[in-house]
Amino acid sequence: LDVIGDIKLNGSLVNSGGGGLQGNVYAASGISTFNDVRVTNNLTVEGTTTTLDTNLIGVDRVEVGANSNTLAGIAVTQSGSADIVNLFDGTTEVLTVTDGGNVGIGSATPASLLNLASSNPLIRLTDTDSGSYSTIGGDGGNLYLYTNSTGRDFIFRGTSEIARITGDGKLGIGTHTPDHSLHVYKEGGDSVITIESTGNGNH
User: 3-state DSSP: the chain helix, strand, coil percent, rounded to 5?
Assistant: First the structure.
């Protein structure tokens, strides 16, 4: 069936034997079946569910334009034990969501809730207000923390700032402006630094 333009159909489409339709196009259930259908313009499907059991090939793009305040734009339900989502770049699997919900980026078998895999896996955090960024990386089993310049710091917070490592390598505890390699500051109270040996209990 080659369609050029719009078709509005109210009722069943029946093959009378003399047309160009091939295959069983009518059944008592009301479901029409076609061997091949080609639509060269817009296709509108109205109904509660649409079932597709096929491979999409030679497709430029699949786009979902959702407009709902209550329903997800895309909802995938996996009732079996296979992966929920596999995304490929050519023949390379680049993103995987497993049956249990683990997400792998660069890994087809993610071993944790989020698993990034590459020769130099990085996570970049960018502040859109300034364009500055920080990066978390892993290489050779080591964990790396990067800033985009020596003017950016690593800051540790509880309810307020408790420690800071500056971009040029100074450690400040109790101060956000350390002026030596190690700068510890406290307003009054007990000793600032305690060094303890568990061998004899001395400080």
Answer: 0, 25, 75
